[in-house]
From TrEMBL:
Record CDD domains: N-acetylmuramidase_GH108
Residues covered by the Peptidoglycan binding domain: 94-178
Domain TtsA-like Glycoside hydrolase family per the UniProt entry, residue ranges: 8-90
Protein name as annotated: Peptidoglycan binding protein
Domain of life (superkingdom): Bacteria
Length: 182
């Protein structure tokens, strides 16, 4: 999937307007919170937030800013998962998942050096991803994807355990987010 298809899938999954009392994000439309919409110039009622504005925000904040195009050139399924995870958990968290997995799979730093866990896609993260994919070949991307999804699922469970109000969202997160990057 390309970024346009990924954005469409997220918007379809997020749906239209919502203002669930247990959601700390408050009013949302197309999955964009009021706070994020306001940061990008929206001053109206969230019920009328434009889909085109949501598309722009998704592309800018969750694809371009973290540099997922560089990941997509190497591992498109991983990039799609990082995009979706970043939308729901923040891009730094999504990238930290990738960095943690790459560190854990480098066989004691013999395949490539451990990464600094900084939540940013930079030259070192891309070099480690390249080395991992070169070493692990065809199945490498699917293994990375499984490990990232495992961390994502564990984080959702922890969120529900720490804040019982999040139990209202846990089933949906697991059903619609883990293993469903697009």
């Amino acid at each position: 999937m390309n970024i346009d298809e990924l954005i469409d899938a997220v918007i379809d999954r997020e749906g239209g307007y919502a203002d669930h009392p247990a959601d700390r994000g408050g009013a949302t439309r197309w999955g964009i919170t009021m706070a994020v919409a306001r940061e990008h110039g929206w001053r109206g009622d969230m019920r009328h937030f434009l889909r085109s504005a949501a598309v722009t925000i998704y592309r800018r904040l969750y694809w371009d800013r973290p540099g997922l195009d560089a990941v997509a050139a190497r591992a498109p399924l991983v990039a799609a998962e990082l995009f979706d995870t970043g939308v729901n958990m923040g891009t730094a968290t999504a990238v930290l998942f990738l960095q943690r997995v790459l560190n854990a799979l480098n066989r004691g730093a013999t395949d490539y050096a451990d990464l600094t866990l900084d939540g940013r896609i930079g030259a070192a993260t891309l070099a480690a991803l390249d080395a991992f994919l070169r070493t692990r070949r065809a199945i490498g991307e699917s293994v990375l994807l499984k490990a990232i999804e495992a961390l994502q699922g564990a984080r959702y469970l922890t969120l529900a355990e720490r804040r019982p109000a999040n139990e209202a969202f846990l089933y949906g997160w697991l059903a619609n987010r883990v293993g469903e990057p697009a």
